[in-house]
Amino acid sequence: MRFEKAYITTQIEHWNDIFRLNQRFMSNFVFRGQGNTDWGLKTSLARMVENHHPNYSDKIMPASYEQRMMDEFMWKYPSYEKNHIPEANESIEWLSLMQHYGSPTRMLDFSYSMYVALFMAIDGSFFPKSAIWALNKHALSGKVFAKYREEFNTNVVSGTDLDNYTYKEATEAINRRFVVTKEKVEHYLYLTRPHRSNERINRQQGLFVIPSSIEVGFEDILRDYYDESYHGEMKFDDVVNMSIDHRYGQNTVTVLKIEIPKSLKYGVSNVLRQMNITSETMYPGLDGLARSMSCLRDAMGDYKAD
Questions:
Q1: Is residue 36 exposed (0-12), middle (13-18) or buried (19+ Cβ within 10 Å)?
Q2: Model pTM?
Q3: Would the pLDDT of 297 be above 90?
Q4: 3-state secondary structure 267-291
């Protein structure tokens, strides 16, 4: 079966299944781990607004929350940090700092590493299933490149120039958060990194996916990137076979959701520990050491150890 821009959901059946995926194929994606497969892709800002206002209809409300939080954080931040203070219009840098220290933002954390995302999916999760979300980075950047090509009348762009353009477009989208129009507007998911990294981003091989608008949900924007007619479930063996089949190119799958049953957590975490992917290595300082104290132990919990 041939398809393009598919949205596939699958589930591993054994703890080592995920290591069977072809790495060349998987290099087309960026990854996010979530402790509950039912959570979907939703920003912390969206969750906060919905928790406070379950039936809100004011499209400006998320932007108002974001603006007020950024204003206060930017005002108070110099009291805590005297060096490396971003410029006022460097919104991605400010949101990155806010995200790092736990503030709700429009950003979703992703990683270049599937194994880091696998760790994030199972770490501290006791839901029946956790999940890795894999988004095709070529699909995300391709839509931005189409805009770049139209703006600059060219079919060629370097990776660095496209990254800089993506960063600029994402920043401008954040800064015009209060522009609401009844006309149909093209929405984007910007795959980008802050110019100033931090130890956690480095350890987790991290980057962000930033929606151009917070008037609509993250997954509503994501629908523009895949073909609804190829949205369904697939057996994991078939996903493995697809990943090693050279006939399937980089645009075959836009969204790949891999579910991990709770019973397989022990086997997965044991292998990740052998790869030195633990709380202690993923989180800097004493934060990581303290988190690592709750690691899974033999014969503890409802796990398959084989």
A1: middle
A2: 0.93
A3: no
A4: HHHHHHHHCCCCHHHHCCHHHHHHH
